[in-house]
Amino acid sequence: MLGIVMGAGGFGGFLGALLWRGMERRWGAGPVMLAALALNPLAQLPLVLVSPGTTGQAVLGLCLLIQTGAAVAHGGLQRSVRQELCPAHLQGRAQATGAWLAFGLRPLAAFLAGALGTLVGLRPALGVITLLLAAPFVILWRSPARGMRASLTPAFGAGP
User: Fold this and answer.
1) Which helix (H) or strand (E) is 145 found in, with range?
2) How far apart are CA 135 and CA 85, in angstroms?
């Protein structure tokens, strides 16, 4: 069952990669990034509430499909926005900063999540973590990126 749940997440990532560009063209970069960031904590919420068993596992698979699809869509779109808006001489610095924020903080986050789980228990810790997953949405909502509507540079091979 673990393989099926994880496979659902992989398929979600595939769908996110396949669909983000069309969604961005239709609704704009800001709204698509906001929607993707809003889906993350919403798809995490059942993890706090679900019970063990086949039904719970199916719910987790569906949630992982949604969460991974949203994460891949957001990641691809935010990199495109950064490449479009960032001056050429700062591209490397912007990429390195983004990578550090995305991956460099994971060990600290894992340690803090484990400590929180030890102190308050699994479900309360998952509840706190789910609430914290709303922070990127709030930050983007309060930024000028929220209003980005214009489509970015056309996809590969499509000319200017």
Assistant:
1) none
2) 23
Which helix (H) or strand (E) segment holds residue 55: the answer is helix 54-85
C-alpha 4 chain-centroid distance:
21
Record the tokens describing residue 102, joined without a space: 């995305």
Torsion 158-153-96-9 (CA) sign: negative
Q: Three-state DSSP class for 149?
A: coil
CA distance 140 to 37: 9
Q: What is the pLDDT of residues 81-106, one digit of tens each?
A: 888 888 999 999 998 998 898 889 89
DSSP 1: -
pLDDT at 157: 40
Asked whether the whole model's pTM tops 0.90, one would answer no
